[in-house]
Amino acid sequence: MRNRWYLLMMAPGFILLALFLYIPLFMGVVMAFQNYNMFNLTDLHFIGLENFTAIITDKTIDFWQILINTAVWLFFSLLFQFVLGFGLALLLKKPFAGRSIYSGFVFYAWALSGFAIGLVWSWLFNGQVGLFNDILMKLHLIDSPVGFLSNPKYAMVSVIITNIWYGVPFFGIMLLAALQSVPNELYEAAVLDGCGPVKQLFSVTIPYIKPTIISTILLRTMWIINFPDIIYAMTNGGPANSTNILATQMINKVYKQYDYGQGSAIGVIIMLLLLIYAVIYLKLTNANEDNI
Amino acid sequence: MKPRTRRNISTAVRVLLLAIYLIAAILPLYWIFITSVKSPQEIYAFPLKYWPEKISFASYEKLFSISTFGLYFRNSLVISLLSSLGAMVVAVMSGFALSRYSHSRSKGIIELVMYFSQTIPSFIIMVPIFSIFSKIHAVNNRAMLGIVYIATVVAFCTIMGKSFFDRIPASLEEAAKIDGCNLFQSITKVVLPITLPGMAAIFCFAFINIWNELFLAVMLLNSSSKMTVPVALNSFISKAGISWDVMSAGIVVALLPTMVVFGIGQKYIVAGLTEGSVKG
Q1: How many interchain CB pairs under 8 A, A with B?
Q2: pLDDT at A273 over 60
Q3: CA A273 – CA B36 distance, rounded (Å)
Q4: How do residues B10-45 score in pLDDT, each as one tens digit?
Q5: Residue B167 distance to chain A (closest CA, Å)
Q6: Contact of B67 with B245, CB cutoff 8 Å
Q7: Which residue from B minimizes the CA distance to A260?
Q8: What single-letter DSSP state applies at residue B31?
Q9: Residue B279 has what pLDDT?
Q10: Using CA atoms, how far apart are residues B253 and A16, in angstroms rounded to an integer?
Q11: pLDDT tens-digit profile of B161-182?
Q12: How far apart are CA A222 and CA B241, in angstroms?
């Protein structure tokens, strides 16, 4: 039987996954219930839910604000990434001269480091010599430079705009591929039925590529929640926690406070939230499917 | 409105929108590049110059002389190239095997393990890996970091590989078998040549992800001579702020390799992404 050979060929991949993803994941979940930190490596023991209660009742950092920040960060990033990415895919559907070069220029951001992109945009948003301040002042929309990243009022909007810019190519790539898979006959039939372009979009295109839309949105949700890079580079959660999300708070717990137990506890909270989200999301989208 | 006028208007709107997307996509990179070739005084000078008075490479000279950025670049390049190569080899093997494996129930479980591993946040495994590595004295070891990197991309690369191999009929190998090839020969002589584009996509995908990784590298490398490019950029951020001459040059150098890889492999990467369709 060749199947045994095939299992052997899969072994290296599985060993790597087990050693560096699944075992650490299990250890991480265990650590979330231990007093594991840099200053206490000898007397390691289980402390029940203490890490979780410590995070939720933290006096210096309001946990509910972090949750709300995470939700805001997720919702607006996702909404605009999707809408703008969909728009780009629709624009690119019909062939035109130089389309492949053009798409290279609008898609390349997908390949860039989120951390470096965060740095680039923190320079664009710079409160003294940033390009955006300069443009806004030249347009006489503002009189003096705005501290986009130092003012709690604007910081979240600024990091979300950056994240939108970074995420549009992914949706563009995925949705363009889906759009190109829609059979032309469907459009021809729609035209015969007297459908205009808008009606075609909503009654032919979107229903046809719905599975792709559902799966990309789910994947992107997980990815955005697990993605501290941009905020870490631009504000690191500040000012006054106005951009602190669960992922950046976890990085801070680990990098700055060396509190690995609490850091892991935040990781567990994120995974639980994502799990609940995924179950509800798939239930809702499946329920819709049944109605059609 | 006449149909012709309407068509003209819609073309004009389309061109305008395409132009807006293009400008939005290019502007940030244009600005960081322009900053990097300004003289250090001009970077902070008012009014802002949208084009430098005189092109100056002072920032790049400073980057490579003061911060030994060349060393970090080499570290990143060696780690990324070798790990992507490793990931490609492992993923081609497991992707092919998964595609041809015929025991349907365990196949489903294997696929689930692959897909689920994509949802594990990389920072929940960071601390455990650090604590294991501290115990076995593997911290501050570039080879070990490279192996961890292979593990972080191998599941997606396997899924990508499987979808490429799925499109190659198994009858091709059967024919090779009849011609007297064993399993190994039929893979290397018949299957692999057709899947070169797929392998290119896997390599590009792995390279891009590994080159860009920051947090594991910060955790697992602590001597400055071993730093990778993202870790070096991170070290440029100090309490006093960022000095944007060196930083802008560093960012440009950091972004170049993945831009080149994306430019070359765009067609394959796009195909691989949409087929594997698991991770951004």
Answers
A1: 231
A2: yes
A3: 42
A4: 889 999 999 999 999 999 999 999 999 998 888 888
A5: 17
A6: no
A7: B127
A8: H
A9: 38
A10: 31
A11: 888 888 888 787 778 878 888 8
A12: 32
**pLDDT, average across residues A237-258:** 90
Residue A192 has pLDDT above 80, yes or no: yes
pLDDT band at A238 (very low <50, low <70, confident <90, very high): confident
The answer to whether the CB of B276 falls within 8 A of the CB of B155 is no
SS3 letters across chain A: CCHHHHHHHHHHHHHHHHHHHHHHHHHHHHHCCECCECCECCCCCECCCHHHHHHHCCCCCCHHHHHHHHHHHHHHHHHHHHHHHHHHHHHHHCCCCCHHHHHHHHHHHHHCCHHHHHHHHHHHCCCCCCHHHHHHHHCCCCCCCCCCCCCHHHHHHHHHHHHHHHHHHHHHHHHHHHHHCCCHHHHHHHHHCCCCHHHHHHHHHHHHHHHHHHHHHHHHHHHHHCCCHHHHHHCCCCCCCCCCCHHHHHHHHHHCCCCHHHHHHHHHHHHHHHHHHHHHHHHHHHHHHHHC
Decide if domain A58-258 falls under CATH 1.10.3720.10: yes
pLDDT in tens, B229-239: 999 999 998 77
Q: Smallest Cβ distance to B110: which of A8, A10, A24?
A: A10
Enumerate the residues of chain B whose CB falls inside 8 A of the CB of residue A174: 273-274, 277
Best of B100, B123, B163, B258 to disrupt the A interface by mutation (most A CBs within 10 Å)?
Answer: B123
Task: Tokens 């989200």: give the residue.
Answer: A277
Average pLDDT over residues B81-98: 94
Beta carbons of A156 and A237 less than 8 angstroms apart: no
- Which CATH code for domain B62-276? 1.10.3720.10
Burial class (CB in 10 A: 0-12, 13-18, 19+), B268: buried
Contact B38, A131 (CB under 8 A): no
Alpha-carbon torsion (B122, B126, B128, B133), positive or negative: positive
Q: How big is chain B, counted in residues?
A: 280
Q: How many CB atoms lie within 10 A of CB A225?
A: 23
Under a CB-based contact definition with an 8 Å cutoff, are residues B120 and A264 in contact? no
CA atoms within 13 A on the CB side of B87: 33
Q: Which residues of B touch A233 (CB under 8 A)?
A: 237
Which A-chain residues 152-191 have CB contacts (< 8 A) with chain B? 165, 167, 169-170, 173-174, 177-178
What is the domain partition of chain B in residue ranges?
62-276
Facing B121 at nearest CB: one of A3, A14, A267: A267
Cross-chain CB nearest to B123 (options A165, A212, A251)? A251
